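Progress note, sequence design subtask.
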């Protein structure tokens, strides 16, 4: 059984104070994922819908995107070993969701809904 925290314990990403508190760690995690997945700066910028300048706070949407990406990263680590977990996001996928595109291309072209779909699909495979 998965231990899911009660909703009241989850941070309210619409609250600027919560984003201010969580943002620096979220951004560090984002950069680490981009490095691990060998994602270019251009694609990283597209994934996050703009990298904030030094000192600027992440938006609610940017925090949500990082949250989805962290879920994807975690699921890939649970499903695959090192090289496959690291390369999956940039590997062409013939599955019906991707139609020959890489998951990265699918996410960039589909925005937040595509990011959520990939996260949910991978999560469903880890149960």
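Output:
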């Amino acid at each position: 059984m998965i231990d899911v925290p009660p909703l009241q314990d989850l941070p309210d990403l619409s609250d600027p104070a919560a984003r201010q508190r969580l943002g620096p760690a979220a951004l560090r995690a984002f950069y680490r994922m981009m490095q691990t997945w060998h994602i270019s700066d251009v694609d990283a910028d597209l994934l996050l819908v703009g990298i904030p300048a030094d000192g600027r706070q992440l938006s609610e949407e940017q925090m949500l995107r990082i949250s989805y990406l962290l879920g994807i990263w975690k699921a890939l680590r649970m499903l695959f070993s090192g090289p496959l977990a690291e390369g999956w996001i940039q590997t062409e996928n013939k599955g019906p969701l991707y139609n020959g595109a890489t998951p990265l291309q699918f996410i960039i072209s589909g925005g937040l809904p595509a990011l959520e779909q990939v996260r949910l699909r991978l999560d469903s495979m880890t149960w």
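The two ends are 9 Å apart (CA to CA). Work on this subtask will continue into the next period as scheduled.
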